[in-house]
Amino acid sequence: MSKDRIWKIYLSGEIHTNWREEIKKLCKHDELPVIINSPNTNHSNSDDCGVTILGNESNKFWHDRKGAAINSIRNSILLKETDILIVKFGDQYKQWNAAFDVGLAAAQGKAVITLHDYNLDHALKEIDQASLATCRSVEEVVAILRYVIYGKLHEKDEKAAE
């Protein structure tokens, strides 16, 4: 790969932990040439953007529909432009939107990396099958990025493989 290439990474999935910040910190530490994007992770802004901008709805379906449509503008453009989609699934909530992102990315031929605990293996078996790697930690995710970008294993990655 060209040394001048900037990789576009899209972080989708659960919003209740700091996994995105951890990935950003590790990428910065390793000086990876990446631009990291994500959906709006402010839950109330994401949920209420439609009615805040376009007016209230008495029916919750239309309230949610307005917000989803506006969020889709950002998310679909960033996903279309991304090189690698990284999706974190957590235990607390069902991340249907993240599963949808995996489907869109797979249909567009994008590389997908999933991140979740072992207890979700069965529930996410089809999503994991569509991904190119399933990780259990942000460190594994960044090790994959490092390898994909530079084609080299980090010293600690090489020792772990022995």
Structural class by helix and strand composition: alpha/beta
Widest β-sheet, arrangement of strands: 2-1-3-4-5
Total number of beta strands: 5
Number of helices: 7
Evaluate the radius of gyration.
17 Å
CATH topology of the domain at 7-39 and 84-161: Rossmann fold
- In terms of per-residue confidence, which ranges show pLDDT below 50 for 5 or more consecutive residues? none
Cα-to-Cα separation, first versus last residue: 27 Å
Describe it for me?
With 162 residues, the protein is α/β, with parallel strands linked by helices. It has a domain at 7-39 and 84-161: Response regulator (Rossmann fold), CATH 3.40.50. It is 51% helix and 15% strand. The chain is built from 7 helices and 5 strands, in the order βαβααβαβαβαα. The protein has helices spanning 19-29, 43-54, 60-81, 96-107, 125-130, 138-150, 155-161, and strands at residues 7-13, 34-37, 84-88, 111-115, 133-135. Strands 2-1-3-4-5 form a 5-stranded parallel beta sheet, sandwiched between helices. α1 links the parallel β1 (7-13) and β2. α1 runs parallel beside α6 (138-150) and α2 (43-54) crosses α3 (60-81). The longest helix has 22 residues, at 60-81. The chain is globular and about 60 Å long. The two termini are 27 Å apart.
